[in-house]
Amino acid sequence: MSSEPLVIPRDIIPDVAEADNVSTDDTPEHWTTLKFTWSGKTFELSVADTDRVYDLKTALRDLTNVPLERQKILGLVKGKLPEDQVLIADLRLPAGKKFTLVGTPEGDEIKDPSRLENLPDIVNDLDIDFTEDPAASLAYLNDQRNRRKVKEATEKLKIDMIAPLREGKKLLVLDIDYTILDTRPLTSGLLPPDMCARPGLHEFLEAVYPYYDICIWFVVVFLPVPHLRHHYAFRSQTGWMWLETKLVELGMIGSSRNYQISFVLDKTCMFTVFSQRNGKPWSHFVKPLQIIWNHFPQFDASNTIHIDDLSRNFALNPREGLKIPAFRNAQTPEAMADRELRKLTRYLLHIAQVSDFRTIMHKNWKQVIKLLPGRPGV
Ligand SMILES: [Mg+2]
């Protein structure tokens, strides 16, 4: 750890909308109670005007275990049910409206990976840099439904600690998929876990651990590799158990290395947000840091950094996000030459001395480390 002064020229810090612009006006929402029958039984549920059609389908799945893509919703609206992003308010549903749900619940069958609802890491070209679009972030943060989703995710959140948090440390929230591991050969079983790791992974974690508690946030996605179909016997509930085995094998958990992962979050702590892009509806998952901060009040925007290969994952926290190029094709010469984690080590150690992260912009991290004295080419 160096004692160099922090060098971040103001002129490379772009203007961004301040978090103060986020509305805190939580006027009570208007809810509508609906009744539906499914499989001979009657159910009741409530939807808010700010919910989307997608949220209604999610609520139906929670009640019946019928996956979204299998749901047939009859008699709720005239004609075809509008698209997922449409606001419930726009459906103008009367209180007590009755409808019928048709659909087979999810059993213990092996999932067809082509029908997995969430494939964020594959469709990487749809990423958008939210640090360059503060207005888009602000729109998300000002959406009453999204603020409610943060509250709901906070209430649902159960964290199993792997290692205790330490006093006075900052928090490093680290994506797994294509940030520190090439998930593709890992999930298909084509390579052993240690061969899927980004070069310098353990050294990176050991170097930053004295200053940061480490949280990993993963979305394991299974890819279609036809001759390895039996590997798809994977269910979201067991996602962590599966990954834990891999991380133990890799030495990230339960080894004698000089770092510990404090806790792990998965896809169940994420939710979908809706917006427009190029005039078309666009939706994607987000990782809302606020749910961690609600759970561990010692952490907030002043001492948390979130590293991810997908900028849209930090759409609700653009100032805490640092986007790293995706790591793919493990074991190829290009992948073996990857030095991103070394660069990241220099940056994280450098900013470890900053008392309030809100005063810096991680977006410029590569420019910042170029200004640091040290080994060339690192
Ligand atoms: Mg990722």
Structure characterization notes:
- With 378 residues, the chain is of the alpha/beta class.
- 24% of the residues lie in helices and 16% in strands.
- It has eleven helices and eleven strands.
- It has helices at 53-64, 134-141, 144-156, 183-188, 193-196, 201-208, 239-250, 289-295, 333-336, 340-351, 365-370; strands spanning 31-38, 41-48, 72-74, 97-102, 170-175, 212-217, 263-265, 271-277, 280-286, 304-308, 321-323.
- The strands form three sheets. It has a five-stranded parallel sheet, with no helix packed on it.
- Strand 8 and strand 9 form a beta hairpin.
- Helix 3 crosses helix 8 and helix 6 (201-208) packs parallel to helix 10.
- It starts with 30 loop residues before the first strand and ends in an 8-residue tail after the last helix.
- Magnesium ion binds at residues 121, 175, 177-179, 308-310.
- Residues 121, 175, 177-179, 308-310 line the site of magnesium ion.
